[in-house]
Automatic annotation (TrEMBL):
Belongs to the FMN-dependent alpha-hydroxy acid dehydrogenase family. Its cofactor is FMN. GO terms for molecular function: FMN binding; oxidoreductase activity. Keywords: Flavoprotein, FMN, Oxidoreductase. The keyword Flavoprotein applies. This is Alpha-hydroxy-acid oxidizing protein. InterPro entries: Aldolase_TIM (IPR013785), Alpha-hydoxy_acid_DH_FMN (IPR012133), FMN-dep_DH (IPR000262), FMN_HAD (IPR037396), FMN_hydac_DH_AS (IPR008259). FMN binds at residues 79-81, 108, 129, 157, 216, 238, 271-275, 294-295. The active site is at H240 (proton acceptor). It comes from the Bacteria. It comes from Ktedonosporobacter rubrisoli. Glyoxylate binds at Y26, Y131, H240, R243. The keyword Electron transport does not apply.
Length: 345
């Protein structure tokens, strides 16, 4: 398809008609009554930009670094499982499109392509997302394989002691097709997430790898302090796209508290509800160093494979560039909290 869309939501509309109903419902669903799913997006609507005029610049500089790695814009690919549901090329296409956009890809533990194959395709920096499985040896093996394959950090998802109740998906009595399988595991292994871990898991992981450990799924100042005590390199403020605890805080609402508690000691990123370049702007103004996209990446993948993923990043890049020029920000470091105002109406 050569159609070029100019907003991510146009990709959403196009993807809806292309993707199998079960896969669509699985991706779009939140958990429970989907309060958090809706609020992740709605909360951005309460934030407005206080733009500054007559700040001279050429084209603004959108590039930044995450843990020292350069990315061409402050938007990265979130870990998303089962990507062959949206495109036959699955993760192979999404990592390629992310590389074309010159940004970073996080490979999911639950990918339909093995972590080694993803790494073999890569033209972008790569992090590996780890679920905390029982038996622990399953997680340990993944960490060692990821290090061996050249991944640059481990993103530990801590908001999933159980998989969330995706009730919309369940109510529709959908199930995922048989051929969709977790390629990091052999067919006779069905890895289960575990609710028995405590913060000591980071000390254990540290004995397995020298790679930076990033914690994904933090929403409070208290857990920010715990994470820093246990030596994490960075924090992802996330409620898993509204798919774990329903009624959990919207990510953009939780972000300032985490940034405050982190006191500049570790980098803080955000995911959840990013659909436009102004959403990225608002997250950066609230203290995030960069953001991740989950569902919007899948829409690009479903519509145009690797090129669609590249296009999603291109749309966000252009929208962010406009927001920066129109608010007087020559580079991403200029996007500060004084440029934001909350209006609760
Ligand atoms: C279909 C789907 C699968 C996901 N799989 C994973 C996963 O394997 N590991 C993980 O840590 N997060 C997973 N997530 C959560 C994303 O990493 C991210 O937190 C979320 O999608 C961000 O919200 P957004 O979709 O509004 O951008 C998944 C999300 C979706 C929609
Ligand atoms: C069993 C894989 C779970 C993927 C996931 O994290 C999600 O669906 O939100």
């Amino acid at each position: 398809m050569d159609t070029q869309y100019i907003q991510t939501k146009q990709y959403e509309e196009a993807a809806r008609s292309l993707v199998d109903a079960a896969a669509w419902c699985y991706a779009e669903s939140g958990c429970g009554n989907e309060q958090t799913l809706r609020a992740n997006i709605a909360a951005f609507e309460h934030l407005y930009i206080r733009p500054r005029m007559l700040v001279p610049m050429d084209a603004p500089d959108l590039s930044t670094t995450v843990l020292g790695t350069s990315i061409s814009l402050p938007v990265m690919a979130a870990p998303v499982g089962f990507q062959q549901l949206w495109h036959p090329e699955g993760e192979r296409a999404s990592v390629q499109g992310t590389g074309q956009a010159q940004t970073l890809y996080v490979a999911s533990s639950s990918a339909t392509t093995s972590l080694e194959e993803i790494a073999g395709r890569v033209c972008s920096p790569l992090w590996f997302q780890l679920y905390l499985f029982e038996p622990r040896s399953l997680s340990a093996q993944l960490v060692q394989r990821a290090q061996q394959a050249g991944y640059q950090a481990i993103v530990v998802t801590v908001d999933t002691p159980y998989y969330g109740r995706k009730e919309r998906f369940w109510r529709n009595q959908y199930s995922l097709p048989e051929h969709i399988r977790k390629a990091n595991f052999s067919d006779d292994v069905d890895p289960m997430v575990s609710s028995t871990f405590d913060w000591g898991v980071f000390d254990w992981l540290r004995t397995l790898t020298d790679l930076p450990l990033i914690v994904k799924g933090i929403l409070t100042a208290e857990d920010t302090c715990k994470a820093i005590e246990h030596g994490v390199a960075a924090i992802v403020v996330s409620n898993h796209g509204g798919r774990q605890l329903d009624a959990a805080l919207p990510s953009i609402v939780a972000l300032p508290e985490v940034v405050g508690a982190a006191r500049g000691e570790v980098e803080v990123y955000l995911d959840g509800g990013i659909r436009t370049g102004t959403d990225v702007f608002k997250a950066l103004a609230s203290g995030a160093r960069a953001v991740f996209i989950g569902r919007s990446l899948l829409w690009g993948l479903a519509v145009q494979g690797a090129e669609g993923v590249n296009q999603i990043f291109a749309i966000l890049r252009e929208e962010l560039e406009y927001a920066m020029v129109l608010s007087g920000c020559p580079d991403v470091n200029c996007i500060t909290s004084d440029l934001l105002k909350e209006c609760n109406w």
